[in-house]
Specification:
Length: 451
């Protein structure tokens, strides 16, 4: 691919150099600013093509000790210098053309030489367009192709000026020179602007948006943070932090980063991607807060354990709510003091906590004193509730106990083996809700088996 690119640029350079010689000679002989202006445009393209040819070679060099990002900026710098040269030439062309129009004392003699030069230039421009279109999609080849297309357009304007001059309207040549000068000025300003932005590592908002969208659409990515993008020659360098679930294993985190790199390569092409993987911020906060709260409760002898810990990250800070199981032998005053002491420790030692809600419960050693219950009416109601859920294929086993006035219901149910775990969880949750609606203040546990 590199050889065909260089060959195409060499052919383009030879062709455009011949155009400079022919049009400059014809312009001086015919006294045509339109031809001289087009020759200056062709000269700029010749310089630009030489820069592209040089940078095609230099840009292909791998990064080294002095250029860790490669050598692509050389191409950008050459493009800026070429744009400044073209801008200067456009000012001169517009000034000379305007002076001729205002002065009025000029004669343009296009003659056969002038028309021959224009027709030759148009033929060469078409040849360059054909050669460059067949050379592939390299950025340097695309850039030179745009130059060839602009050459063809400017030559058409020069031809219009010569036609008007040959019809006796000599101002047409100067008018074409002004138009061509303005066109070249516009193109050069765009070139200077684009290259200066690239040299300063500026990136378009549209490109940033597409990159961020591609990263966030990658499976497993929660957030895209600190996205940095820079272009060095043809290559785009992307550096970004992504967050993933904190319980993701190292191999999976690496796989997620690899998927991001693949998706960005599909979006941009020649890209160098560095992805830093971090656990999600909320999960890091949650894990830290949970560890701290559990550490605090271990320091209080009467607090046996905590459960149902809810950590809410709101705009004003962190809100906590949890159940604390305490020794059933302590009185209410001591239980209240424990709660106050625990809240104080949390406020003082966990930054950002704005609200704490603690629900105290009696601690049980885990061994319930229960009595089996065989009540036909309860069994009938359980069967009736299960029958309302067609996903439940059968009730394989049921155990019902009573402990301290509370009903404990344990069921083994069969469900379709092709149901997903998520679907089974939703079904059993609905069944539990219905059972607790009929048997308030009960404990319901349902075990599922495939069938």
């Amino acid at each position: 691919m590199l050889d065909s690119k260089i060959v195409a640029l060499k052919v383009s350079l030879i062709l455009i150099a011949s155009v400079v010689a022919v049009e400059a000679t014809a312009g001086f002989v015919a006294n045509s600013l339109a031809l001289l202006g087009d020759a200056s445009h062709a000269a700029f393209d010749a310089v630009a093509t030489m820069v592209l040819l040089l940078t095609a070679r230099l840009g292909a060099k791998p990064p080294d000790v002095d250029h860790t990002y490669g050598h692509g900026k050389i191409e950008t710098l050459g493009g800026m210098l070429g744009g400044l040269m073209l801008l200067l030439l456009s000012f001169v062309l517009v000034y000379e053309s305007a002076s001729r129009i205002l002065g009025g004392n000029f004669v343009v003699s296009p003659g056969l030489l002038g028309f021959s030069a224009v027709l030759y230039t148009m033929t060469i421009d078409l040849a360059r367009i054909i050669v460059l279109r067949r050379a592939g999609s390299s950025i340097t080849v695309k850039t030179d192709l745009l130059h060839a297309l602009s050459d063809f357009g400017s030559t058409m304007i020069a031809l219009l000026g010569l036609v008007l001059a040959s019809l006796g309207y000599y101002g047409g040549d100067s008018l074409a020179g002004v138009i061509l000068g303005l066109l070249l000025g516009y193109l050069s300003l765009n070139t200077v602007r684009r290259t200066s932005l690239e040299l300063s590592d500026a990136t378009s908002a549209d490109l940033l948006s597409k990159i961020r969208e591609t990263i966030l659409k990658t499976e497993g990515v929660n957030e895209c943070r600190k996205l940095r993008v820079r272009r060095v020659g043809e290559r785009v360098y992307i550096d970004s932090k992504i967050t993933v679930q904190g319980d993701v294993e190292l191999n999976e985190a690496h796989a997620i980063a690899s998927r991001v790199e693949t998706n960005l390569a599909m979006l941009i092409g020649d890209v160098d991607v560095t992805i830093h993987v971090e656990p999600a911020v909320e999960l890091r906060i949650s894990n830290f807060v949970e560890r701290q709260v559990k550490n605090f409760t271990r320091e209080i002898e009467s607090v046996k354990d905590i459960h149902n810990l809810k950590i809410l990250c709101l705009k004003d800070g962190i809100h906590l709510a949890f159940h604390a199981r305490v020794d059933p032998k302590i009185d209410l005053i001591k239980a209240h003091n424990i709660s106050d002491h625990l809240e104080k420790m949390i406020y003082e030692k966990i930054p950002g906590v704005k609200d704490v809600f603690i629900h105290l419960e009696l601690y049980q050693d885990g061994i319930l004193k229960v009595e089996p219950l065989e009540d036909p009416e309860i069994i009938r109601k359980i069967y009736w509730i299960l029958s309302q859920h067609r996903e439940i294929k059968s009730l394989k086993k049921s155990r019902i106990y009573v402990s301290e006035g509370k009903l404990h219901i344990y069921l083994d149910c069969s469900l379709d083996k092709y149901q997903s775990v998520d679907a089974v969880h939703r079904i059993l949750s609905h069944v539990e809700e219905d059972l607790k609606g009929v048997f308030p203040n009960s404990v319901v546990e349902i075990h599922s088996e495939p069938v």
